């Protein structure tokens, strides 16, 4: 998987106060008189849900800041799986009980014969994640994410896996747009949306720093307790993956990458940050980083002296402090930036978990935009 390669009811006390009766206009009435009601409600749509059931947070476990994994169930009766919630892909897959690859022996596997609601689709599928891949069959069954139930959900069942040995998850749950689904099936988020599981077609991520607990993915709305300030909305530039336009990348006021604008993928399935090899080399020079195998080693003291790397997105600066982009590993520190060879005519970046730990992220399917705000 690319993870390797590009390798919370709050009880409220209710006080009743008896006051003299008098007619006071409600906020709704005042806004309606001034023709501002619709604007107000639209602006609040992602902070308040109409009913508690329309927004749900699902816990994710943080595995060493490298993968954020949540539990789902598939089948009747339910079989449990740990999956990577991935905004960089659109398919759901888990290992099949018939999988003979070594990776499958250390992960939970799905047994179709033990589910009364499973249906075969009669097709095969091969999904590549960089050099990692899965090959298997396509079926459909009932899939549950917390209280959300997706009926007749298509998913892949791997019978061959390459590159998944030792990963802390059984499969992947893709949250990108339907256009990149390899199985050509409706992704689970779209299926839930079409079945009326939530009123607002949005999901959001809060990724904890270092702590195993505390991370969440939320569906159907946004809980503002996870971020500070206001959400800044960025239009999606291409409706396949969650792709946005980026203006520049700077350090100490100097443009070090994306000097003429570039594209960036906001990807929860990637632990680090990836850019063109040439641009990442520029950043590593300013960090005094030295190559060591496939990593770049940095002095651990540099956390106290290096400036932030600033990504300017839609005219707003998103600083990434050195304590975020310098990763401590035992007795050394390594850079979270990785360079990959790209075509000379393009410059693309992947903003993975290193960036998303700093910024709460909202993915709005209806309006095709991403909301970002400093995470708490």
Overall 3D shape:
globular
SS strand fraction: 35-45%
Instruction: Give the rounded overall mean pLDDT.
Output: 88
Given as residue ranges, the uncertain stretches (5+ residues, pLDDT < 50) are 3-32, 36-53
Cα-based radius of gyration, to the nearest Å: 22 Å
- At CATH level 2, the architecture of the largest domain is Beta Barrel
The CATH superfamily label of the largest domain reads: Acid Proteases
**What is the share of helical residues?**
10-25%
Give an account of the 3D structure.
By secondary structure, the protein is mainly beta. 12% of the residues lie in helices and 41% in strands. It contains seven helices and 27 strands. It has helices at 2-5, 27-33, 37-44, 188-194, 277-286, 322-325, 353-356; strands at residues 56-63, 67-74, 79-86, 92-95, 119-129, 132-145, 148-162, 171-174, 202-206, 215-219, 232-235, 238-239, 242-246, 248-251, 254-257, 262-266, 273-276, 290-292, 295-298, 309-313, 316-320, 326-329, 332-335, 337-340, 348-351, 359-364, 369-374. The strands form four sheets. It has a six-stranded mixed barrel. Strands 12-13-16-25-17-24 form a six-stranded mixed sheet. The longest helix is centred in the C-terminal third of the chain and has 10 residues, at 277-286. Mean pLDDT is 88; it is low at 3-32 and 36-53.
